[in-house]
Predict the structure.
Amino acid sequence: MFKKLFLAFIFFLNFINLYSQNKENPLIIKFENDTIVVKKTKIIQTSLYIKNNGNEIISGELEISSTNDDITLLKKIKQNIKLEPNDFIYIPVKAQLKPKTFSSEILVEAVLKTADKTFNENLIILPEKLRNVNFRLINQHLTFFHVNDSISLNFDISNNGNTDQLVNLVIKYPYGFSKNEFETIEISTKAFQDTTIHIQKFINKQMLKKEDFEIHAALYYKSGDYINSFPIYVNSVKQNRTFRDLNIDEHRYQENEIRLSNSYNTSSNQNNLNLGINANIKISESERVRLNSQMEYWDDSQNFFLRNTILGYKNKSFETNIGNLYQQGEIMINGIGGEVKYKLTDSLDIEIGFIDKTYSVMETFKNSKGYSGWAAFNTIKQNNARTRTFFNYDFDNNSGINKYILYHSQEFIANKNLKFVYQQGLSTMVDNQNVATGILGGISGFYSSDNWSYFGNHIISSNQYAGMRRGVIQLNESVQYKYKNHNFSLFYNYNELSPESFNKFEMFYNNQINQNLNLGYRFSNRYFNFFLAPTYNSEKRTNAYFSEISLFKKVGVNTIFQINNFNKNLIINTTFDAGKILSLNLDQPYSYKIGLGVKYKQFNLTSQYQYNYASINELNNPNQLNSTYESLNTNLMYTLNAFNNRLEFSTFINYSLNNNLANIIVLNNSFRFEINQNFRVFLSSNYNKYLDGLQYSNLNLQAGLIKNFDPSKTKTEKANLTVHVKYNEKNKTSSNASNKIVFINNKPFLTDAGGKVRYKKIPLGTYEIRLQNDNEWLSDMIVLKVDSDTEQEIFFNKTTTVSGNLNFEETKNSFDIKKDKGAFRIDLTNADGKVYKTYTDDSGRYMIYVPEGIYTISIFNHLPSAQTEVVENNIEITTEIDKPITLDFIIKIKEKKSEVKKFNSVKF
């Protein structure tokens, strides 16, 4: 009974409280949300709640509005409200931010005016802060004539976000062009504003000799986040030019050279004469011949060796190689033999091969260590998934073992972000007495998204599997998550190696198990990188000689700290690793490793000090455990480039101290000088000396000459192209156009007095020819197929102007829209469908230069069609020389429709 009286008392107090509130607040007016953060859609949808808490009827005029120009109420609300006691109503509110919103906070106000009182409620709108900077190159192809000519690097930076941004423009110049290889410019960009950057540079003698070169420009946010980058092609203007294949110039040193050298070694007192040939010759568009060979003559022993010699032929569907071959399947083999690869279809190819394990062509086959043969089938499915089926037979003379291996791998999911591959192997080993069967199985996977990535590799094989991966268990897992400049990673690796011998001639000394767990964090931007990773390592090894050293466990942490100052060509990094050894009974169980690296221009210094053991590989015998392991390793390298990269010199010094092994110093030097494009001379030296323990030093000297050659020079058909430029006025050829710039595949030429330029010895093919237009003369680009010596006429057409203004037409009942006149596109289309484009400026004016002819001129109205329309569009005009045309466009703003609606209160 007492409990019921108590509840009744509480209810009575609550009623009295509500009654008093109603008396104080007869009307409740509030937005559904007090504050709204507007997302990228920039659409605001909410409602206004009004309730009559009083005992009398409330009526008044409600208006919802905003004085901020950055927001538009899609339906302006101004209406009469009448609410009976306890009635309530919801008023929907919908608004949209304008494309360029500068405000950080926008206020929308609801005002309800009754006969004796005014009620107010505010809605705060917070536009989402957007970072959106675009980077555009105004002119990607620049030209120059002489030394001290200037070139202008012009960039447009558009800040389309609603926040001011600091950005860095980084420009990389070619060697010899400027004092610093990198130039960094910090730029402050305002929201919704464009910034144009002009950088003027001057051509020096080195660049004039180079003729053509590239400059690279990239833009980054202040935080280091990448925005965009472009190459800029800079070319000298010539009247006549001989074609030069840049791709061949880039690779000629590696693929097409004859090298003659002599080396001398002080420890053996021996001279070696070396001749090397490396050629990849293009005999047609689809056929190549390959020849590699290395010959050596040792004068002291009077021995001659022919090694690394291979002759090959390749076309679109067939390839064969004979000589010293290397094959990596389930067995790694090299020797003398041959192979054939044939492409049956676009998705299927086969290969077969045979190798005798004799390594020098001049050696007799009695020194053979065995032989091996293989056959393989490779397929590519429609989803780009690849399969490989491989059969290998191998015989080893030393052990007398015949090996038969069938191996298959299959990608059963293969796309850009997700890939799974499984592999399986079956093998048999046979000698005179025994037979053993082995298997292998594995699966690997890869996944990536904008923030996440995963890689896993899992392999297991039996202890007498005949392939390289005998007795292997591998579990490798990697998961990474990236958020802006932050990268989180988790790595786990388990590797076990426990092969078993098949007969007494096979010997495996070490069985081992390695485990590694790594949890990493990396922060990186353009100027600063930091890495932190706690680690756990466990290594177990059974050694036939030192079985006491069998287990090594360690926990620790690895750190990397790097500072980049590309403007000063300086990079500094430090590393610090610390850990505790858990498995060995050491007086000093803690291990440290400290490193420092400094790269300044051509200098590169690295130094590392280590205290105590960091890996089982540093333990060679049990006696080492009586002392603490210490080492110091220092490297210094200097590289010099001079005479437009024709001269290269580098020196490398290594100084290594170790309390378990002998200390050593190593000094390497190399010198190269390019006499011309076809000849280089080089000189190198290598000196190493043990500073204690072993009294040993050695100096090796080598000097030589390299002859480069063009592999396609004698085989590729070439032609000469002459372009004759003429003026065309009123469709009549008038005169030759001299001193005009012509671009042929973006290479600039200057016409001579006869209006001609010549491009010599060009490969047969398709070429784009365009003229450098101006306001008075205009020419369209042409595409020309050159299959023999060709002379092509191209015309400059005299232009006339079409101009006008854009105007708006409106009445007092027209829609209230923002009447920006800029950025309306104007198209002029001629009878052949060629389109000439221009845009109106902020005042609505446009002007365009076109050749005479008949055109359809139109304006593209990007304003809402429900609110605006073009009064007259798609107008046909006829242009004539010296008779400019003026044509204005009018955009009519439509009137709003007026509707009268009766509002009733909504009851729930």
About this structure: The CA atoms of residues 26 and 54 lie 4 Å apart. The first strand starts at residue 27 and ends at 31. Residues 13-23, 248-253, 899-908 have pLDDT under 50 and may be disordered. Helices lie at 2-24, 205-210, 246-255.
